[in-house]
């Protein structure tokens, strides 16, 4: 049978399947109760000859979003959740598959009897009038077809009113002068359309401004916006005034008097009697602590208020956020009470409930990758949240794991690892000079010591030691920094087998893996993201890394490979510069769909005491979170062709000095917890200098001809506590093939078992790839 005939059969099967779904979708109305109609949605049409078409469409979309109830959800013109609800039928008990399908996966029909046309019309009228379209008329009607009903709303607005002038309070109150001075920041602009929401936002802005000037008891309701539309042609004059019945205390600015801290506050016993010996006076703070839990200086670093300061909301919120971010409290409560000693002052009380000081966390991880390795990992962590009585976090961990390959060329060459790590994190900068942080996020200093033993059976073992000392801080919720001033890694091989030594004779590049390595130098990492802003259509994520190893040491010692290689404890130290950037863009296409894209660019340059990057610092591609149509670490470098493995050989990891990778995927919710994706991946790695043992691996001006391309589709199961991901990918372009034959689209043959075995790559992972 010809390939063309096969494609025709597949096409006919697809049409038949689509027709079946269409027929089933049409049958939804036969399950309706007697006399009921299925509500399929509402539309809003604005009749206005003055409004621009773009503005009219935008307003129509806003108004349609206000209609209630919402119709049953659609997918490709069908209502699959309603179909599942109907096909499941009425369950006989509150459990089982039928109950789950009907009530968890399915969705009951939205009936026209649930729709109140008059109520929706009033909602639309109020909304448009609040936008300045005064005296709007709204009419509502419905259309019935085959037991399905749509609602149509006709909105006829008058000409929109424009702001002619804005006047701020001009009385003798001090706060009125503060408000007047902030008029340049006003949200009410002359010439803009009248909008009630903007007026509300302006009152909130003024309230926030006054909160920064000590007006603790003020609130937006004390501001009245008087709107005069009697003069002019569709114009309004807005006058903001302080209400006459505003309480005196709301018109008064307050200062901070006494500050009380309860670090051992109990939610179940807030009336505990404290003796004098439980009370400590430290600077401006009165600390009531029965257990002497913390060193008093921690409060000086965390509480922004000092006695005599004018109250302001910024310092109020910063203090609460910093207490929360210390990581030692499960509950943080703050109260302000009028001072009983001086007028127009507040006493501040901080009630802090402790988390358990010591705890153990056990993590069991199951994993698999596209190189056919399946394994597990166990992590046991002991933690102390207040190790030195300054909210320091001490962690001691032991971990172990194993990766097995039950088939393929690496069968029997399993990977085992065992190790331990200790770390201590201080909630402040530890530096020779004082650095004052002003962020709501607590800066941290972290010291780490780690050892790991890794055994690759039948090949080699590696002992790896690492120690680091550095800083982590956030400017705000979007910007984060990590600087390791000291980062030292020492790797020593062990138990290298004759088999692996024989492989090195055939491919000398494999010898780099088992060389002793000494890497030291600073590293810096910067992250920017605004992906937490869910309402934005475009959001981004950027991560940049800079890794400098042995630079000053190589400069001062005059290191020069291979003529003058310098060693420390008989081990040559690495000298290189490495940079990497990861940029991601997320385009929101709908409520449950988006287009996610990622671009990774990386480069490493070894010089001085080294001629190549250490194996652990080189770039790799392929695998579950990279180019998914190629197995992990088997792609590249460049157009290099990996020799076919022999019975005594295995597929080595491919790595290089340069990396370029691009990924994009469309994500959409299908139903319930199931989300789907279609994706395209492209990229490769290259060596900076030619390697006679790897022809084609060096970067050249024709590097774009060596870009690998893969595509596929996947399902993601959102279980709330984790996302299980399955991606099925196929290669579209393989740079290891001869130039001119690298596009393999014409060779795709789903009917061939050998083709599927070599080209269909199933990736199973936890979480999204990016």
From TrEMBL:
Gene3D superfamilies listed in its UniProt record: membrane protein fhac: a member of the omp85/tpsb transporter family
Keyword Signal annotated: yes
Residue ranges of domain Bacterial surface antigen (D15) in the record: 572-740
Keywords for the protein's UniProt record, in alphabetical order: Cell outer membrane, Membrane, Signal, Transmembrane
Pfam families named in the record: Omp85
Chief localisation class: membrane
Keyword Transmembrane appears in the UniProt entry: yes
Compartments, record wording: Membrane
Protein name listed in UniProt: Outer membrane protein assembly factor BamA
Species name: Flavobacterium anhuiense
